[in-house]
Amino acid sequence: MAMTMTGEVTLPADRPRVWAMLNDPVVLKASIPGCQSLEKTSDTSFAAVVKVKIGPVGASFKGKVQLSDIDPPNGYTIGGEGEGGIAGFANGGAKVQLADAPGGTLLKYDVQANVGGKIAQLGSRLIDGVAKKLADQFFANLANAANAPDASSLEAGSA
Amino acid sequence: MSATGIGASVKRTEDIRFITGKGHYTDDINRHGQAYAYFLRSPHAHATINKIDASAALKAPGVVAIFTGDDIAADKVGGLICGWMIHSKDGSPMKAGAHPALAQGKVRYVGDHVAVVIADTYAQAREAGEKIVVDYGVLPAATDTATTAKPGAPQVHDVAPNNTVYNWHIGDKAATDAAFAAAAHVTKLDLINNRLIPNAMEPRAAVGEYDSGTDALTLYTTSQNPHVARLVLSAFIGIAPEHKLRVIAPDVGGGFGSKIFIYAEETVCVWAAKKIDRPVKWTADRTEAFLSDAHGRDHVTHAELALDVGGKITGLRVHTIANLGAYLSTFSSSVPTYLYGLLLSGQYNIPAIYCEVDAVYTNTAPVDAYRGAGRPEATFVVERIVEIAARQLGRDPGEFRRANFVTSFPHQTPVILAYDAGNYGGALDKALALADYKGIGARKAASAAKGKLRGIGFSAYIEACGLAPSAAVGSLGAGVGLWESAEVRVNPIGTVEVLTGSHSHGQGHETTFAQLVSQRLGIPFENVSIVHGDTDKVQMGMGTYGSRSGAVGMSAVSKALDKIEAKAKKVAGHVLEASEQDIEFKDGKFTVKGTDKAIDFASVALQAYIAHKFNGQELEPGLKETAFWDPTNFTFPAGVHICELEIDPETGVTTIDRWTAVDDFGALINPMIVEGQVHGGVAQGIGQAMLEGAVYNGDGQLLTASFMDYCMPRADDLPSFRVETIETRCPSNPLGIKGCGEAGAIAAPPAVINAITDAVGHEDVAMPATAQVIWRAAQKAILKRAAE
Is pTM beyond 0.90 here? Predict the structure, then answer.
């Protein structure tokens, strides 16, 4: 089942720094809620393991993350697909755009995602709420990273 | 009438064990050394299986074996079959895609079987299932009934271009076109018959067991027809020859059709039991039941009714698209054809009918028979369009129906069936009186004064059940005959065991069959036991569906009892030293005509076995008889249901205030059980009309896969039913029985929707008419009135 979500957030850092953070596996790993591992497999792709709980269904998703439409330092599209075993699957992407703004950088995102299997069967009424919460957490974590003196020290950031 | 004979409301003997937890269901069966199966199911509606990597799963604790479609293929295990051949109107046979028990190369619906993990415990099997890595090539899915046959839709099976299984038709197109050309008035209707998920209380389960000493297999399974399961598993799937395969369906907690079919899981359990030489058990969890039990209904229909100036129906034209899901389930092809098109004449004298049905594949669970099977779909079409026609012509809906009723019997419809007996006007009269139809105007006014909308809806249904004359269904494409068998074993002390090919999964056969035997043999009801559900005990049988156990199964028992009586008379003749022709049998006593010489049934039974009083070469000892009953016609239960409800237009909350049912089921064996069947059937029909609806999204994900999202009717959704009967005996069986198991589910949906549309004053109300649907309909009516 498909889900869409859009939003924006102002991050307290200038555009080049936000851009760097968005391409830094350490920052991303610390910021993605439930991220167990994130390894760069090429300049534009990562292998990831993410634990998510949607209502009664908890699952560990293993998948690929791909970056495309890369336009530094203005934005990219981050896409991924993951198999959650018997919990089902999830795939989707987010178009991320950066713009200068008073006090930092305005990040706009436009998410499209699909889930299937048990997640869709049992969690379909919960999925929008969970997705919103995960996005909020992700950007809150990213904002914390922007505030931190050295983003690389955020390895153990909240999830 | 005795207190336990035919016509008595005997309390159900089986209920004691059911309500005290002493029932013995498939999941209660545990065999020595048993392992457990977990089925890995597809999360995708449509995908190629590029690779299955089970290496990590095989190393998981407790895992005994993991099998995939490759193993099924290597063992030459046959595919699951559809047992009813339907031909398209161009004469070509239906296009059945392969249906392997474990997917081979492709998955076609969410829940399709990808692999089975067998382990020492169910938890271990499930844990290991997590570790199987499947590389899917996800394909777009075809999910929409109305458009799946259109060019460009994803293709479910290569053998079925445009996802079309068949384009079937019935009736006289030219005569029907002529009726429409000459019509004074034409009523048109587009409708959707919503998709339903059966949800028997007991989920499906199976235990397969192999005895290497005798090379024989036993399958315990939740089946409505264990002999049909054995036949299919043996003759088509090739698990084992019939004499090496025993199928036992013990207590079964509801079926509603969903347990007729031979599924992948039981096939795999019994096959794998031999492979690993250990019993293999599987019990569905509720999500698996939602995903993989055959669903019901799912039609998209356009219908047109032609009428002459006097309001007589002159023709009916129907086009239906029937969604059969991703594979053809066991009897799926027959449901939207011979169980549907043949019923389109309803209770009415319609000179010309033409019906076309396009059966289509989609990437959804298979769809097959569900309580009523085809007849609810037909009744919904007929009773909605007749109601709308009456409204358009400004006629009273009851009197409009009456004016078009079939009134003389036998009546040959234009769609094969010949109705043998009925009294449609009589049922209508009784229903109108019981429902206080005369007072509806005052009740509507009273509701209006409270700001509520009150509506009344009729459903004058007919169904064809007592399936079915073997030669007739054979000529229509059935792969089996639909007779039933019975064996009556009289023990030396005069107690009786009846072995029946019918199968009880809630119907109460242990009670009703015993009532028949008790009455016929004049022996205490307690002295009769009913045996069913075991292919090693019962020689052969066709099982229970299509309201056939009474009309066909009990007729077989009755025929066997005739033979018992004839044999017992011979024995009694020897004992009483009288000619067999002079022996009379009544109330459990054999007497010699015109004398006071008598002997009771139990004594005759003993004499039959000790065989001292007759020459064992001239008369065989023993008292045991077998009969097969093949019906000569379908039976035709019919009746009138009237639904009266009140809507709160501000919230859509709707209360069914009165439900009146007047049914003609022919002779009744146990009126209490009949009433219970009507209650259950009407509850399911109201569920379809107002609450239940399976929803797949465009990707083929089942969004209604739990009771959170799929709403079943509960007691507080239902009124107190007023259930009465009239009786015209069925002329085609010795007991005069017509069958009552499905009638409520057939009758109810149009009665509800006719009542809602009456209340809101327009026809734009789809099933399930939830509070939201009804609120929208009521608001639309209010806005329309305001605009006028």
Answer: yes
